[in-house]
Structures are given as C-alpha cells and as structure tokens.
C-alpha cells in the first residue's frame, strides 16, 4: 500500500528557549502594543512581511526564522532589555544621540546561537562632534561602525555591529566549503576504487 502522509513541514524549535515556533503567516500583529519583532512586523513599511512560506516565530521570546530568504534567526526591538539572549554590552551601552530622528532599533541575527551578530541602527541629525565620540567608542569597544552622511538632508544613518554580515555567514560558507571538499574526496575515492 502506498501511504501518502500529510506533508506538513516540521517547524524548528526556538534555539533560544526550545519552544515550538509558529508560522508567521498565521500570527497577527497586535498594533496596540510595541511590535514583538520589528523585522517581522515593521510598521513603518507597507504591508507584506519578508517572512514568507515556512518562516516561523517563537511565541515566547519572538525570535523569528526567515525560511524564505536568509535562513537565519532574527529579533529586532526598540526595547534593548527585551532580548532573551542579552544584548552585547558594548551595543547595549552605545551612546545614542538625543538627536536621533528615527526609531532606534537593536538587532540580533544568528545562524546558530554560538555566533550572534548584535547591532543597532538609527538616523540622526548630522553632527560631526557626536560622530567623533561614537567613532572613539566603537574603536575602544571593538565594534564596526558605519556612518552615512546625507548632505542634502542634513541627516545621517548610524549602524553599529559586533560582527559583519560576512563574519556572520562564515560558518555557513565554511560548511559549504567542507561539503565541496568532501565531494571532491569522495569522487577521488571512487576514482581509485575503479578496476583497472
Ligand atoms: Zn524562544
């Protein structure tokens, strides 16, 4: 007898707290409260979330898995105390200017929880003396800092991170390299196993 199972894809458990995750597409954004995860429900952008398909979210601490695009876990919040995995202290203590004229959003991204990228993003008035302060802070704390100055708007974006996206992806690239190496070695073994 040919048995055809209901083809339900098992959603991953939350790597932080172990709770079963739920499909993002079946959750509602409660707009009377702060967003549970700004990457999933970014209220400043119109409508559709990039968390499509089998993307899922932990109902407890709101880490979300992007199954459709980047295949990583992400949590983005304005509340820096809202992370179940504590934010890296240097990011937590980053001196955010009073002249920030956007939301100040903290992020954690990871592929596996051993390597977490902590970051912070906001726009502010262009203020070179402030930029000097944060450059020194970033240097002292070993953070990557990017400041993009928009001269026309007198506005700048500030992004600070513990790891670059490239560093975050390094374990994944390494795994691909290992697979490739394995494949070459297997091919060689098959090659030597051939009868003369
Ligand atoms: Zn969780």
Q: How is this structure best described in words?
A:
The chain has 196 residues and is of the alpha+beta class. It has helices spanning 89-92, 128-141, 165-193, and strands spanning 22-23, 56-57, 64-65, 73-77, 105-110, 116-125, 144-150, 155-161. It has an eight-stranded antiparallel sheet with strand order 1-2-3-4-5-6-8-7, covered by helices on one side. Strand 3 and strand 4 form a beta hairpin. The longest helix has 29 residues, at 165-193. The radius of gyration is 21 Å and the shape is globular. The structure holds zinc ion.
Helical residue percent? Answer: 10-25%
Mean pLDDT: 89
- Ends: how far apart? 44 Å
Largest sheet: 8 strands, antiparallel
Spatial arrangement of strands, main beta sheet: 1-2-3-4-5-6-8-7
- Structural class estimated from helices and strands: alpha+beta
Give a brief outline of the structure.
The protein has 196 residues and is an alpha+beta fold.
Describe the structure using short key phrases.
196 residues, 8 strands, eight-stranded antiparallel beta sheet, 3 helices, 21% strand, 2 domains, binds zinc ion, alpha+beta
